[in-house]
Protein backbone atom coordinates (compact mmCIF):
# COMPACT_ATOMS: atom_id res chain seq x y z
CA UNK A 1 0.00 0.00 0.00
CA UNK A 2 1.15 3.47 -0.88
CA UNK A 3 1.64 6.32 1.57
CA UNK A 4 1.37 9.05 -1.02
CA UNK A 5 -1.64 11.26 -0.31
CA UNK A 6 -3.36 12.79 -3.29
CA UNK A 7 -6.20 15.20 -2.43
CA UNK A 8 -9.58 13.95 -3.57
CA UNK A 9 -10.06 17.12 -5.57
CA UNK A 10 -6.89 18.42 -7.13
CA UNK A 11 -6.43 21.30 -9.56
CA UNK A 12 -5.91 20.79 -13.31
CA UNK A 13 -2.30 20.37 -14.51
CA UNK A 14 -2.39 23.91 -15.96
CA UNK A 15 -2.92 25.38 -12.51
CA UNK A 16 -0.23 23.19 -10.92
CA UNK A 17 2.22 24.26 -13.62
CA UNK A 18 1.39 27.89 -13.06
CA UNK A 19 1.83 27.56 -9.31
CA UNK A 20 5.19 25.85 -9.77
CA UNK A 21 6.26 28.61 -12.15
CA UNK A 22 5.30 31.13 -9.46
CA UNK A 23 7.25 29.17 -6.84
CA UNK A 24 10.42 29.74 -8.93
CA UNK A 25 9.77 33.46 -9.64
CA UNK A 26 11.64 36.39 -8.14
CA UNK A 27 14.22 36.19 -5.33
CA UNK A 28 14.23 32.91 -3.48
CA UNK A 29 12.10 29.90 -4.15
CA UNK A 30 8.85 28.89 -2.53
CA UNK A 31 9.88 25.38 -1.44
CA UNK A 32 6.73 24.85 0.60
CA UNK A 33 4.58 25.34 -2.46
CA UNK A 34 6.67 22.89 -4.45
CA UNK A 35 6.20 20.25 -1.75
CA UNK A 36 2.53 21.06 -1.43
CA UNK A 37 2.00 20.37 -5.11
CA UNK A 38 4.47 17.69 -6.20
CA UNK A 39 4.48 15.59 -3.04
CA UNK A 40 0.72 15.18 -3.37
CA UNK A 41 0.42 14.11 -7.00
CA UNK A 42 0.72 10.56 -8.31
CA UNK A 43 2.96 9.46 -11.20
CA UNK A 44 0.36 10.06 -13.91
CA UNK A 45 -0.45 13.52 -12.53
CA UNK A 46 3.21 14.48 -12.25
CA UNK A 47 3.79 13.38 -15.81
CA UNK A 48 0.92 15.54 -16.99
CA UNK A 49 2.26 18.51 -15.02
CA UNK A 50 5.67 18.10 -16.68
CA UNK A 51 4.09 17.94 -20.11
CA UNK A 52 1.85 20.94 -19.45
CA UNK A 53 4.78 22.92 -18.03
CA UNK A 54 6.87 22.19 -21.12
CA UNK A 55 4.01 23.11 -23.46
CA UNK A 56 3.18 26.32 -21.58
CA UNK A 57 6.62 27.72 -20.81
CA UNK A 58 8.78 25.92 -23.37
CA UNK A 59 11.02 24.76 -20.57
CA UNK A 60 11.74 21.50 -18.81
CA UNK A 61 10.31 21.42 -15.29
CA UNK A 62 13.13 19.11 -14.19
CA UNK A 63 15.76 21.60 -15.35
CA UNK A 64 14.01 24.44 -13.53
CA UNK A 65 13.74 22.37 -10.34
CA UNK A 66 17.39 21.49 -10.73
CA UNK A 67 18.48 25.11 -10.92
CA UNK A 68 16.11 26.40 -8.21
CA UNK A 69 16.74 23.79 -5.52
CA UNK A 70 19.83 22.40 -3.86
CA UNK A 71 21.41 19.46 -2.03
CA UNK A 72 19.32 16.63 -0.56
CA UNK A 73 16.03 18.39 -1.09
CA UNK A 74 16.85 18.93 -4.75
CA UNK A 75 17.86 15.31 -5.18
CA UNK A 76 14.62 14.07 -3.57
CA UNK A 77 12.37 16.36 -5.63
CA UNK A 78 14.11 15.54 -8.90
CA UNK A 79 13.93 11.80 -8.31
CA UNK A 80 10.31 12.10 -7.29
CA UNK A 81 9.40 14.17 -10.35
CA UNK A 82 10.61 11.40 -12.66
CA UNK A 83 8.33 8.70 -13.94
CA UNK A 84 9.00 5.45 -11.95
CA UNK A 85 10.45 3.71 -15.01
CA UNK A 86 12.70 6.64 -15.91
CA UNK A 87 13.76 6.90 -12.28
CA UNK A 88 14.76 3.24 -12.07
CA UNK A 89 16.70 3.48 -15.32
CA UNK A 90 18.47 6.58 -13.95
CA UNK A 91 19.21 4.98 -10.57
CA UNK A 92 20.52 1.81 -12.21
CA UNK A 93 22.72 3.80 -14.56
CA UNK A 94 24.14 5.86 -11.71
CA UNK A 95 24.78 2.64 -9.82
CA UNK A 96 26.78 1.13 -12.67
CA UNK A 97 29.13 4.09 -12.45
CA UNK A 98 29.84 3.76 -8.74
CA UNK A 99 31.46 1.14 -6.57
CA UNK A 100 30.55 -1.85 -4.37
CA UNK A 101 27.62 -0.55 -2.39
CA UNK A 102 25.80 0.47 -5.56
CA UNK A 103 25.52 -3.21 -6.42
CA UNK A 104 22.70 -3.16 -3.90
CA UNK A 105 20.78 -0.59 -5.90
CA UNK A 106 21.04 -2.70 -9.05
CA UNK A 107 19.93 -5.82 -7.19
CA UNK A 108 17.10 -3.90 -5.47
CA UNK A 109 15.68 -2.71 -8.80
CA UNK A 110 16.07 -6.15 -10.37
CA UNK A 111 14.44 -8.05 -7.52
CA UNK A 112 11.71 -5.82 -6.10
CA UNK A 113 10.05 -4.61 -9.31
CA UNK A 114 7.52 -6.73 -11.17
CA UNK A 115 8.78 -8.63 -14.25
CA UNK A 116 6.98 -6.27 -16.52
CA UNK A 117 8.20 -3.14 -14.73
CA UNK A 118 11.78 -4.42 -14.88
CA UNK A 119 11.38 -4.95 -18.60
CA UNK A 120 10.07 -1.38 -19.00
CA UNK A 121 13.16 -0.15 -17.15
CA UNK A 122 15.35 -2.06 -19.63
CA UNK A 123 13.47 -0.49 -22.51
CA UNK A 124 13.82 2.99 -21.02
CA UNK A 125 17.53 2.29 -20.48
CA UNK A 126 17.97 1.70 -24.21
CA UNK A 127 16.26 4.98 -25.00
CA UNK A 128 18.23 7.06 -22.48
CA UNK A 129 21.68 5.54 -22.59
CA UNK A 130 21.91 3.85 -26.00
CA UNK A 131 23.08 0.68 -24.35
CA UNK A 132 21.39 -2.16 -22.54
CA UNK A 133 21.11 -2.36 -18.77
CA UNK A 134 22.69 -5.82 -18.62
CA UNK A 135 25.49 -4.61 -20.88
CA UNK A 136 26.44 -1.83 -18.46
CA UNK A 137 26.02 -4.02 -15.40
CA UNK A 138 28.19 -6.76 -16.94
CA UNK A 139 30.84 -4.26 -18.01
CA UNK A 140 31.07 -2.49 -14.66
CA UNK A 141 31.08 -5.48 -12.34
CA UNK A 142 33.45 -8.39 -11.89
CA UNK A 143 33.70 -11.82 -10.33
CA UNK A 144 30.90 -13.09 -8.11
CA UNK A 145 29.01 -9.79 -8.27
CA UNK A 146 28.79 -9.99 -12.02
CA UNK A 147 27.79 -13.66 -11.87
CA UNK A 148 24.85 -12.75 -9.66
CA UNK A 149 23.80 -9.33 -10.95
CA UNK A 150 23.72 -9.93 -14.71
CA UNK A 151 21.13 -12.73 -14.57
CA UNK A 152 19.15 -10.79 -11.97
CA UNK A 153 18.76 -7.71 -14.16
CA UNK A 154 18.13 -9.85 -17.27
CA UNK A 155 15.42 -11.98 -15.69
CA UNK A 156 11.85 -11.97 -16.84
CA UNK A 157 10.41 -14.16 -14.08
CA UNK A 158 7.18 -16.02 -14.35
CA UNK A 159 4.73 -14.40 -11.94
CA UNK A 160 1.99 -16.99 -11.50
CA UNK A 161 1.21 -18.62 -8.16
CA UNK A 162 1.83 -22.20 -9.35
CA UNK A 163 4.42 -23.99 -7.26
CA UNK A 164 6.15 -27.30 -7.98
CA UNK A 165 6.70 -28.88 -4.55
CA UNK A 166 8.96 -31.68 -5.83
CA UNK A 167 11.19 -29.07 -7.38
CA UNK A 168 11.09 -26.98 -4.20
CA UNK A 169 12.35 -29.97 -2.21
CA UNK A 170 15.09 -30.90 -4.64
CA UNK A 171 16.30 -27.32 -5.06
CA UNK A 172 16.24 -26.73 -1.29
CA UNK A 173 18.62 -29.69 -1.09
CA UNK A 174 20.86 -28.24 -3.79
CA UNK A 175 21.03 -24.92 -1.96
CA UNK A 176 21.84 -26.64 1.31
CA UNK A 177 24.62 -28.73 -0.25
CA UNK A 178 26.24 -25.72 -1.86
CA UNK A 179 26.01 -23.70 1.34
CA UNK A 180 27.54 -26.56 3.35
CA UNK A 181 30.41 -26.57 0.86
CA UNK A 182 30.64 -22.77 1.19
CA UNK A 183 30.10 -22.63 -2.59
CA UNK A 184 27.93 -19.52 -2.28
CA UNK A 185 28.74 -18.42 -5.80
CA UNK A 186 27.93 -21.81 -7.33
CA UNK A 187 26.08 -21.57 -10.62
CA UNK A 188 23.24 -23.68 -9.24
CA UNK A 189 22.64 -21.24 -6.38
CA UNK A 190 22.57 -18.38 -8.84
CA UNK A 191 20.39 -20.28 -11.31
CA UNK A 192 17.74 -20.93 -8.67
CA UNK A 193 17.67 -17.37 -7.35
CA UNK A 194 17.88 -15.68 -10.74
CA UNK A 195 15.43 -17.73 -12.78
CA UNK A 196 12.72 -19.21 -10.57
CA UNK A 197 9.47 -17.36 -9.94
CA UNK A 198 9.16 -15.60 -6.58
CA UNK A 199 6.41 -18.05 -5.54
CA UNK A 200 8.66 -20.98 -6.36
CA UNK A 201 11.64 -19.48 -4.52
CA UNK A 202 9.44 -18.92 -1.51
CA UNK A 203 8.36 -22.58 -1.53
CA UNK A 204 11.98 -23.69 -1.92
CA UNK A 205 13.13 -21.58 1.01
CA UNK A 206 10.29 -22.88 3.18
CA UNK A 207 11.42 -26.39 2.33
CA UNK A 208 14.95 -25.38 3.21
CA UNK A 209 13.79 -24.23 6.61
CA UNK A 210 11.71 -27.38 7.17
CA UNK A 211 14.37 -29.83 6.06
CA UNK A 212 17.44 -28.25 7.55
CA UNK A 213 16.09 -26.38 10.57
CA UNK A 214 17.43 -22.94 9.70
CA UNK A 215 16.31 -20.02 7.60
CA UNK A 216 18.68 -19.87 4.65
CA UNK A 217 19.86 -16.36 5.49
CA UNK A 218 21.14 -17.64 8.85
CA UNK A 219 23.26 -20.17 7.02
CA UNK A 220 24.59 -17.44 4.76
CA UNK A 221 26.22 -15.58 7.67
CA UNK A 222 29.44 -17.55 7.95
CA UNK A 223 31.38 -14.37 7.29
CA UNK A 224 29.20 -11.38 8.21
CA UNK A 225 31.66 -8.95 6.62
CA UNK A 226 31.81 -10.62 3.22
CA UNK A 227 30.30 -8.23 0.66
CA UNK A 228 29.12 -10.92 -1.71
CA UNK A 229 27.41 -12.88 1.06
CA UNK A 230 25.57 -9.82 2.29
CA UNK A 231 24.42 -9.02 -1.24
CA UNK A 232 23.21 -12.61 -1.53
CA UNK A 233 21.23 -12.32 1.71
CA UNK A 234 19.77 -9.01 0.56
CA UNK A 235 18.79 -10.61 -2.77
CA UNK A 236 16.89 -13.35 -0.95
CA UNK A 237 15.17 -10.76 1.21
CA UNK A 238 14.16 -8.66 -1.79
CA UNK A 239 12.72 -11.70 -3.53
CA UNK A 240 10.76 -13.01 -0.58
CA UNK A 241 9.96 -10.10 1.76
CA UNK A 242 10.83 -6.77 0.16
CA UNK A 243 9.24 -4.73 2.97
CA UNK A 244 11.78 -6.22 5.42
CA UNK A 245 14.60 -5.45 3.03
CA UNK A 246 13.46 -1.83 2.72
CA UNK A 247 12.97 -1.51 6.48
CA UNK A 248 16.55 -2.59 7.03
CA UNK A 249 17.85 -0.29 4.32
CA UNK A 250 16.05 2.62 6.01
CA UNK A 251 17.31 1.56 9.45
CA UNK A 252 20.90 1.41 8.28
CA UNK A 253 20.59 4.72 6.42
CA UNK A 254 19.15 6.49 9.43
CA UNK A 255 21.30 4.91 12.14
CA UNK A 256 24.50 5.62 10.30
CA UNK A 257 26.85 8.15 11.77
CA UNK A 258 25.86 10.91 9.35
CA UNK A 259 22.66 9.79 7.65
CA UNK A 260 22.96 8.02 4.28
CA UNK A 261 20.72 10.45 2.41
CA UNK A 262 21.09 8.69 -0.94
CA UNK A 263 19.61 5.46 0.43
CA UNK A 264 16.99 7.23 2.54
CA UNK A 265 15.78 9.28 -0.40
CA UNK A 266 15.83 6.32 -2.78
CA UNK A 267 13.71 4.08 -0.59
CA UNK A 268 11.19 6.80 0.30
CA UNK A 269 10.83 8.06 -3.25
CA UNK A 270 10.65 4.67 -4.99
CA UNK A 271 8.30 3.12 -2.42
CA UNK A 272 5.92 6.00 -1.57
CA UNK A 273 3.57 4.99 -4.37
CA UNK A 274 4.12 1.26 -3.94
CA UNK A 275 4.51 -0.40 -0.59
CA UNK A 276 5.59 2.29 1.89
CA UNK A 277 2.66 1.59 4.19
CA UNK A 278 3.94 -1.92 5.02
CA UNK A 279 7.52 -0.69 5.21
CA UNK A 280 6.46 1.89 7.82
CA UNK A 281 4.76 -0.79 9.87
CA UNK A 282 7.83 -3.01 9.67
CA UNK A 283 9.97 -0.08 10.69
CA UNK A 284 7.88 0.76 13.72
CA UNK A 285 7.78 -2.89 14.83
CA UNK A 286 11.52 -3.38 14.45
CA UNK A 287 12.72 -0.04 15.86
CA UNK A 288 10.01 0.85 18.38
CA UNK A 289 9.77 4.31 16.90
CA UNK A 290 7.58 5.45 14.01
CA UNK A 291 9.46 6.07 10.80
CA UNK A 292 8.29 9.69 10.61
CA UNK A 293 9.86 10.41 13.98
CA UNK A 294 13.12 8.71 13.03
CA UNK A 295 13.26 10.71 9.80
CA UNK A 296 12.39 13.96 11.58
CA UNK A 297 15.19 13.39 14.07
CA UNK A 298 17.76 12.75 11.37
CA UNK A 299 16.87 15.29 8.69
CA UNK A 300 15.82 18.92 8.58
CA UNK A 301 14.29 21.71 6.57
CA UNK A 302 12.64 21.20 3.22
CA UNK A 303 14.28 17.80 2.77
CA UNK A 304 12.62 16.60 5.97
CA UNK A 305 9.26 18.06 4.93
CA UNK A 306 9.45 16.42 1.52
CA UNK A 307 10.21 12.96 2.92
CA UNK A 308 7.52 13.25 5.60
CA UNK A 309 4.94 14.28 3.02
CA UNK A 310 5.84 11.29 0.86
CA UNK A 311 5.47 8.83 3.71
CA UNK A 312 2.03 10.32 4.37
CA UNK A 313 2.79 12.18 7.57
CA UNK A 314 -0.20 14.49 8.07
CA UNK A 315 1.48 17.51 9.60
CA UNK A 316 3.99 17.78 6.77
CA UNK B 1 13.19 -10.11 -47.77
CA UNK B 2 10.44 -12.67 -47.51
CA UNK B 3 9.73 -15.42 -50.06
CA UNK B 4 6.13 -15.94 -48.98
CA UNK B 5 3.77 -15.06 -51.82
CA UNK B 6 0.40 -13.65 -50.86
CA UNK B 7 -1.98 -13.11 -53.79
CA UNK B 8 -2.81 -9.46 -54.32
CA UNK B 9 -6.48 -10.23 -53.96
CA UNK B 10 -7.21 -12.95 -51.44
CA UNK B 11 -10.58 -14.14 -50.15
CA UNK B 12 -11.99 -13.11 -46.76
CA UNK B 13 -11.07 -15.29 -43.78
CA UNK B 14 -14.61 -16.76 -43.75
CA UNK B 15 -14.07 -18.24 -47.20
CA UNK B 16 -10.61 -19.56 -46.34
CA UNK B 17 -12.03 -21.23 -43.22
CA UNK B 18 -14.81 -22.79 -45.23
CA UNK B 19 -12.40 -24.09 -47.86
CA UNK B 20 -10.16 -25.59 -45.18
CA UNK B 21 -13.18 -27.23 -43.57
CA UNK B 22 -14.04 -28.72 -46.94
CA UNK B 23 -10.45 -29.94 -47.38
CA UNK B 24 -10.89 -32.03 -44.22
CA UNK B 25 -14.35 -33.38 -45.14
CA UNK B 26 -15.18 -36.95 -46.26
CA UNK B 27 -12.65 -39.67 -46.98
CA UNK B 28 -9.12 -38.41 -47.46
CA UNK B 29 -7.88 -34.90 -47.13
CA UNK B 30 -7.34 -32.31 -49.84
CA UNK B 31 -3.71 -31.47 -49.08
CA UNK B 32 -3.31 -29.38 -52.23
CA UNK B 33 -6.07 -27.05 -51.09
CA UNK B 34 -4.51 -26.69 -47.64
CA UNK B 35 -1.21 -25.69 -49.24
CA UNK B 36 -2.94 -23.41 -51.71
CA UNK B 37 -4.54 -21.49 -48.86
CA UNK B 38 -2.20 -21.56 -45.87
CA UNK B 39 1.11 -21.36 -47.72
CA UNK B 40 -0.08 -18.12 -49.33
CA UNK B 41 -1.28 -16.19 -46.31
CA UNK B 42 0.85 -14.03 -44.04
CA UNK B 43 0.94 -14.26 -40.24
CA UNK B 44 -1.87 -11.76 -39.67
CA UNK B 45 -4.08 -13.49 -42.24
CA UNK B 46 -3.41 -16.95 -40.81
CA UNK B 47 -4.28 -15.67 -37.36
CA UNK B 48 -7.56 -14.32 -38.62
CA UNK B 49 -8.33 -17.62 -40.36
CA UNK B 50 -7.71 -19.51 -37.11
CA UNK B 51 -9.97 -17.13 -35.20
CA UNK B 52 -12.70 -17.30 -37.83
CA UNK B 53 -12.45 -21.09 -37.99
CA UNK B 54 -12.82 -21.37 -34.21
CA UNK B 55 -15.78 -18.95 -34.18
CA UNK B 56 -17.54 -20.70 -37.07
CA UNK B 57 -16.98 -24.37 -36.28
CA UNK B 58 -16.25 -24.24 -32.56
CA UNK B 59 -13.05 -26.18 -33.19
CA UNK B 60 -9.35 -25.44 -33.22
CA UNK B 61 -7.90 -25.36 -36.74
CA UNK B 62 -4.56 -26.58 -35.38
CA UNK B 63 -6.19 -29.66 -33.85
CA UNK B 64 -8.00 -30.45 -37.08
CA UNK B 65 -4.80 -30.06 -39.08
CA UNK B 66 -3.06 -32.26 -36.55
CA UNK B 67 -5.59 -35.07 -36.95
CA UNK B 68 -5.94 -34.79 -40.74
CA UNK B 69 -2.28 -34.64 -41.73
CA UNK B 70 0.75 -36.75 -40.96
CA UNK B 71 4.53 -36.90 -40.68
CA UNK B 72 6.79 -34.15 -42.08
CA UNK B 73 3.99 -32.41 -43.94
CA UNK B 74 1.90 -32.26 -40.78
CA UNK B 75 4.82 -30.86 -38.81
CA UNK B 76 5.50 -28.16 -41.43
CA UNK B 77 1.87 -27.07 -41.71
CA UNK B 78 1.36 -26.97 -37.94
CA UNK B 79 4.50 -24.92 -37.36
CA UNK B 80 3.54 -22.60 -40.19
CA UNK B 81 0.00 -22.11 -38.89
CA UNK B 82 1.31 -20.80 -35.58
CA UNK B 83 1.92 -17.14 -34.97
CA UNK B 84 5.73 -16.46 -35.20
CA UNK B 85 5.91 -15.66 -31.48
CA UNK B 86 3.97 -18.77 -30.45
CA UNK B 87 6.08 -20.83 -32.84
CA UNK B 88 9.34 -19.62 -31.35
CA UNK B 89 8.08 -20.26 -27.82
CA UNK B 90 7.05 -23.77 -28.89
CA UNK B 91 10.36 -24.49 -30.66
CA UNK B 92 12.36 -23.22 -27.71
CA UNK B 93 10.33 -25.31 -25.29
CA UNK B 94 10.76 -28.44 -27.41
CA UNK B 95 14.48 -27.70 -27.57
CA UNK B 96 14.81 -27.52 -23.78
CA UNK B 97 13.46 -31.06 -23.62
CA UNK B 98 15.97 -32.57 -26.04
CA UNK B 99 19.70 -33.00 -26.09
CA UNK B 100 22.85 -31.34 -27.37
CA UNK B 101 21.89 -30.38 -30.90
CA UNK B 102 18.78 -28.60 -29.71
CA UNK B 103 21.07 -26.06 -28.05
CA UNK B 104 21.40 -24.68 -31.55
CA UNK B 105 17.68 -24.02 -31.79
CA UNK B 106 17.72 -22.07 -28.53
CA UNK B 107 20.74 -20.05 -29.64
CA UNK B 108 19.19 -19.46 -33.08
CA UNK B 109 16.00 -18.01 -31.58
CA UNK B 110 17.95 -15.92 -29.09
CA UNK B 111 20.38 -14.47 -31.63
CA UNK B 112 18.48 -14.03 -34.89
CA UNK B 113 15.25 -12.46 -33.64
CA UNK B 114 15.01 -8.74 -32.86
CA UNK B 115 15.25 -7.73 -29.19
CA UNK B 116 11.59 -6.96 -29.10
CA UNK B 117 10.58 -10.20 -30.80
CA UNK B 118 12.70 -12.19 -28.38
CA UNK B 119 10.98 -10.44 -25.51
CA UNK B 120 7.56 -11.31 -26.98
CA UNK B 121 8.68 -14.94 -27.15
CA UNK B 122 9.58 -14.80 -23.46
CA UNK B 123 6.17 -13.35 -22.68
CA UNK B 124 4.41 -16.02 -24.72
CA UNK B 125 6.52 -18.65 -22.95
CA UNK B 126 5.11 -17.50 -19.59
CA UNK B 127 1.59 -17.81 -20.91
CA UNK B 128 2.00 -21.25 -22.48
CA UNK B 129 4.33 -23.02 -20.06
CA UNK B 130 3.87 -21.22 -16.74
CA UNK B 131 7.61 -20.85 -16.44
CA UNK B 132 10.18 -18.50 -17.92
CA UNK B 133 12.26 -19.35 -20.96
CA UNK B 134 15.55 -18.67 -19.17
CA UNK B 135 14.36 -20.81 -16.25
CA UNK B 136 13.87 -23.86 -18.50
CA UNK B 137 17.04 -23.22 -20.46
CA UNK B 138 19.08 -22.90 -17.25
CA UNK B 139 17.49 -26.00 -15.75
CA UNK B 140 18.00 -28.21 -18.80
CA UNK B 141 21.55 -27.24 -19.70
CA UNK B 142 24.85 -27.58 -17.89
CA UNK B 143 28.41 -26.35 -17.95
CA UNK B 144 29.61 -24.16 -20.79
CA UNK B 145 26.35 -24.51 -22.70
CA UNK B 146 24.40 -23.06 -19.80
CA UNK B 147 26.96 -20.30 -19.33
CA UNK B 148 26.44 -19.20 -22.92
CA UNK B 149 22.75 -19.90 -23.52
CA UNK B 150 21.18 -18.36 -20.42
CA UNK B 151 22.51 -14.84 -21.07
CA UNK B 152 21.73 -15.20 -24.78
CA UNK B 153 18.04 -15.95 -24.19
CA UNK B 154 17.81 -13.31 -21.42
CA UNK B 155 19.35 -10.53 -23.46
CA UNK B 156 17.50 -7.42 -24.48
CA UNK B 157 20.16 -5.96 -26.75
CA UNK B 158 20.33 -2.34 -27.71
CA UNK B 159 19.57 -2.09 -31.41
CA UNK B 160 20.84 1.32 -32.43
CA UNK B 161 23.62 1.80 -34.97
CA UNK B 162 25.94 3.71 -32.62
CA UNK B 163 29.33 2.08 -32.32
CA UNK B 164 32.10 2.82 -29.83
CA UNK B 165 35.35 2.23 -31.72
CA UNK B 166 37.58 2.45 -28.65
CA UNK B 167 35.53 -0.26 -27.05
CA UNK B 168 35.58 -2.34 -30.24
CA UNK B 169 39.37 -2.23 -30.20
CA UNK B 170 39.74 -3.09 -26.54
CA UNK B 171 37.18 -5.89 -26.66
CA UNK B 172 38.73 -7.35 -29.83
CA UNK B 173 41.92 -7.56 -27.80
CA UNK B 174 40.15 -9.28 -24.93
CA UNK B 175 38.63 -11.82 -27.29
CA UNK B 176 41.98 -12.50 -28.89
CA UNK B 177 43.72 -12.98 -25.55
CA UNK B 178 41.10 -15.44 -24.34
CA UNK B 179 41.17 -17.37 -27.59
CA UNK B 180 44.98 -17.57 -27.48
CA UNK B 181 44.66 -19.01 -23.98
CA UNK B 182 41.98 -21.42 -25.27
CA UNK B 183 39.67 -19.91 -22.64
CA UNK B 184 36.68 -20.08 -24.98
CA UNK B 185 34.21 -20.24 -22.14
CA UNK B 186 35.72 -17.24 -20.34
CA UNK B 187 33.14 -14.94 -18.80
CA UNK B 188 34.52 -11.98 -20.76
CA UNK B 189 33.99 -13.78 -24.09
CA UNK B 190 30.43 -14.57 -23.06
CA UNK B 191 29.82 -11.07 -21.71
CA UNK B 192 30.82 -9.47 -25.00
CA UNK B 193 28.76 -11.82 -27.18
CA UNK B 194 25.72 -11.87 -24.91
CA UNK B 195 25.34 -8.20 -23.98
CA UNK B 196 26.75 -5.97 -26.73
CA UNK B 197 24.54 -4.70 -29.54
CA UNK B 198 24.88 -6.48 -32.87
CA UNK B 199 26.37 -3.32 -34.41
CA UNK B 200 28.98 -3.15 -31.66
CA UNK B 201 29.83 -6.86 -31.98
CA UNK B 202 30.25 -6.40 -35.69
CA UNK B 203 32.67 -3.52 -35.15
CA UNK B 204 34.58 -5.55 -32.55
CA UNK B 205 34.92 -8.53 -34.89
CA UNK B 206 36.09 -6.28 -37.72
CA UNK B 207 38.74 -4.92 -35.36
CA UNK B 208 39.66 -8.49 -34.47
CA UNK B 209 40.18 -9.27 -38.12
CA UNK B 210 42.18 -6.08 -38.71
CA UNK B 211 44.40 -6.41 -35.65
CA UNK B 212 45.04 -10.13 -35.68
CA UNK B 213 44.75 -11.04 -39.33
CA UNK B 214 42.11 -13.74 -39.00
CA UNK B 215 38.35 -13.86 -38.85
CA UNK B 216 37.47 -14.86 -35.29
CA UNK B 217 35.63 -18.00 -36.42
CA UNK B 218 38.84 -19.29 -37.98
CA UNK B 219 40.56 -18.97 -34.62
CA UNK B 220 37.71 -20.83 -32.97
CA UNK B 221 38.38 -24.00 -34.94
CA UNK B 222 41.19 -25.46 -32.83
CA UNK B 223 39.06 -28.55 -32.27
CA UNK B 224 36.47 -28.81 -35.07
CA UNK B 225 34.61 -31.58 -33.25
CA UNK B 226 34.12 -29.73 -29.99
CA UNK B 227 30.37 -29.11 -29.51
CA UNK B 228 30.76 -25.96 -27.44
CA UNK B 229 33.18 -24.41 -29.95
CA UNK B 230 30.85 -25.08 -32.86
CA UNK B 231 27.94 -23.56 -30.92
CA UNK B 232 30.13 -20.53 -30.24
CA UNK B 233 30.96 -20.15 -33.94
CA UNK B 234 27.29 -20.52 -34.82
CA UNK B 235 26.41 -17.85 -32.25
CA UNK B 236 28.83 -15.42 -33.86
CA UNK B 237 27.40 -16.20 -37.27
CA UNK B 238 23.82 -15.68 -36.10
CA UNK B 239 24.73 -12.34 -34.55
CA UNK B 240 26.65 -10.99 -37.53
CA UNK B 241 25.39 -12.71 -40.69
CA UNK B 242 22.25 -14.76 -39.99
CA UNK B 243 21.63 -15.52 -43.68
CA UNK B 244 24.96 -17.39 -43.79
CA UNK B 245 24.08 -19.27 -40.66
CA UNK B 246 20.73 -20.31 -42.12
CA UNK B 247 22.31 -21.26 -45.44
CA UNK B 248 24.70 -23.58 -43.64
CA UNK B 249 21.92 -25.06 -41.52
CA UNK B 250 19.96 -25.81 -44.70
CA UNK B 251 23.04 -27.22 -46.41
CA UNK B 252 23.81 -29.59 -43.53
CA UNK B 253 20.13 -30.60 -43.24
CA UNK B 254 19.89 -31.40 -46.94
CA UNK B 255 23.31 -33.02 -47.44
CA UNK B 256 22.88 -35.31 -44.49
CA UNK B 257 22.54 -39.00 -45.19
CA UNK B 258 18.78 -39.00 -44.66
CA UNK B 259 17.61 -35.41 -44.68
CA UNK B 260 17.27 -33.61 -41.31
CA UNK B 261 13.61 -32.68 -41.76
CA UNK B 262 13.33 -30.94 -38.40
CA UNK B 263 16.03 -28.45 -39.28
CA UNK B 264 14.88 -28.03 -42.88
CA UNK B 265 11.29 -27.35 -41.83
CA UNK B 266 12.32 -25.02 -39.03
CA UNK B 267 14.48 -22.79 -41.21
CA UNK B 268 12.01 -22.63 -44.08
CA UNK B 269 8.99 -21.99 -41.84
CA UNK B 270 10.62 -19.43 -39.56
CA UNK B 271 12.37 -17.53 -42.35
CA UNK B 272 9.79 -17.56 -45.18
CA UNK B 273 8.26 -14.34 -43.90
CA UNK B 274 11.55 -12.80 -42.82
CA UNK B 275 14.76 -13.22 -44.76
CA UNK B 276 14.39 -16.29 -46.96
CA UNK B 277 15.14 -14.36 -50.11
CA UNK B 278 18.73 -13.64 -49.00
CA UNK B 279 19.12 -17.14 -47.62
CA UNK B 280 18.16 -18.57 -51.01
CA UNK B 281 20.74 -16.36 -52.74
CA UNK B 282 23.41 -17.44 -50.24
CA UNK B 283 22.45 -21.04 -50.81
CA UNK B 284 22.69 -20.82 -54.57
CA UNK B 285 26.04 -19.05 -54.38
CA UNK B 286 27.53 -21.55 -51.95
CA UNK B 287 26.13 -24.76 -53.43
CA UNK B 288 25.87 -23.94 -57.14
CA UNK B 289 22.32 -25.24 -57.15
CA UNK B 290 19.14 -23.30 -56.41
CA UNK B 291 17.58 -24.10 -53.05
CA UNK B 292 14.29 -25.16 -54.63
CA UNK B 293 16.09 -27.83 -56.68
CA UNK B 294 18.01 -29.10 -53.67
CA UNK B 295 14.80 -29.33 -51.66
CA UNK B 296 12.93 -31.01 -54.52
CA UNK B 297 15.68 -33.63 -54.81
CA UNK B 298 15.62 -34.43 -51.11
CA UNK B 299 11.92 -34.35 -50.26
CA UNK B 300 8.70 -35.53 -51.86
CA UNK B 301 4.92 -35.30 -51.94
CA UNK B 302 2.97 -32.68 -50.00
CA UNK B 303 5.90 -31.93 -47.75
CA UNK B 304 7.97 -30.96 -50.79
CA UNK B 305 5.12 -28.87 -52.21
CA UNK B 306 4.63 -27.06 -48.92
CA UNK B 307 8.32 -26.14 -48.57
CA UNK B 308 8.60 -25.04 -52.19
CA UNK B 309 5.51 -22.85 -51.84
CA UNK B 310 6.99 -21.21 -48.74
CA UNK B 311 10.27 -20.41 -50.45
CA UNK B 312 8.27 -18.80 -53.27
CA UNK B 313 8.83 -21.37 -55.95
CA UNK B 314 6.29 -20.49 -58.64
CA UNK B 315 5.31 -23.96 -59.84
CA UNK B 316 4.47 -25.14 -56.34
From TrEMBL, chains A, B:
Any one biological process term the GO annotation gives: response to cold
- Give yes or no: UniProt keyword Secreted: no
User: What SUPFAM superfamilies is this protein classified in?
Assistant: Annexin
List UniProt keywords, sorted A-Z.
Annexin, Calcium, Calcium/phospholipid-binding, Metal-binding, Repeat
State the Gene Ontology terms under molecular function: calcium ion binding; calcium-dependent phospholipid binding; phosphatidylserine binding
- Gene3D superfamilies, per database record: Annexin (1.10.220.10)
Calcium as a keyword?
yes
> Known SMART domains for this protein?
ANX
Pfam families, alphabetized: Annexin
Q: One GO cellular component term, please give it.
A: cytoplasm
Amino acids binding Ca(2+) 3: 298
Task: Cite the binding residues for Ca(2+) 1.
Answer: 24, 26, 28, 68, 254, 256, 258, 296, 299, 304
Q: Which InterPro entries does this chain map to?
A: Annexin, Annexin_repeat, Annexin_sf, AnnexinD_plant
PANTHER family according to UniProt: ANNEXIN (PTHR10502), ANNEXIN D2 (PTHR10502:SF220)
Q: What is this protein called?
A: Annexin
Q: Which organism is it from?
A: Fraxinus pennsylvanica
What's the source species' lineage? Answer: Eukaryota, Viridiplantae, Streptophyta, Embryophyta, Tracheophyta
Amino acid sequence: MATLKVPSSFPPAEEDSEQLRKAFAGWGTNEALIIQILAHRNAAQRKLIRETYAATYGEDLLKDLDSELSSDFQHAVLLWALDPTERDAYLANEATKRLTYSNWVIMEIACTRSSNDLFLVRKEYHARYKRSLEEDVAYHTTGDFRKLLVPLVSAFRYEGDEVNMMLAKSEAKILHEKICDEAYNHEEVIRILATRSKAQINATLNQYNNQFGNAINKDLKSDPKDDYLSLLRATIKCLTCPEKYFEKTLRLAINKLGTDELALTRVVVTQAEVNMHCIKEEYHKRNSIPLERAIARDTSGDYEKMLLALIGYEDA
